[in-house]
Prior knowledge:
Double-stranded beta-helix; metal ion binding; alpha+beta; single chain; three-stranded antiparallel sheet
Amino acid sequence: MDTQTALEVRPLTGSCGAEIFGVDLSRTLSADTVKAIRQALLDHNVIFFREQALTPEQHRAFTRQFGEVVVNPVYTHVEGYPDIMPVIKEPNDRYNIGDTWHSDMSYMQEPPLGSVLYGRDIPEYGGDTLFANMYLAYELLPDALKQMIDGRRAYHSDRYLTSRISERNAGRSTRLKADADAQENLALHPMVRTHEETGRKCLYVNFPFTWQIEGLSREESLPLLNQLYAHAARPELACRFRWRKGSLAFWDNRCTMHYACNDYQGKRREMHRMTIAGGRPQ
């Protein structure tokens, strides 16, 4: 049983991200420690832990302390663990997944609160993950752009993934379910959402899943959407995390995007990801 609540939180950048020291995530955490970790997540958008030795059961137990765990609707799962998604790139794989700036599963009616990604087999270098602060992405928009998107909504769809399952699975060990295209996941969300815990506004669009703006065709939507994507990808909005075996990242999916670097060809990388249920964006 964990009794330590005095966590050491070290910010990584001026925009987002912090490393947390002084806690063993394999143990049952006290209510105070869970509260402190959650506050660090709200303060920094994404938090990282080093040198954690977790079994799948311990990974699950840690994640469940922050909310209900959900099953990924389109990707396969670890055998025996339907709520754990394997993120694997073998040495002979050409592609990884997540190599565009995105927010996880924004095509769901109730997108995830967050994700917890654990590094099991990590190459000596390469495979970093970048995270972007979508609070700042909104706050730094020109006033004219804010006025264009405040109060507007956009459709999010999983068709970027599921419209070409065979093509997406070729050259990847992280595989889509064979029946992932049985029914399109489609949701209508505000382009600027208000975080339900912090009350702050953040930009809520992302390249692979935001399909079109309500009232416009996809072709009419793309000029504005592409401008927003480019703005949100500015380096000063992001932090970059270098993985080691036993590292764990926990990000707030409501106010961040992330990007997985595919720069470790010929090397193996294996991660386990769990996802925490969220609410409907407002």
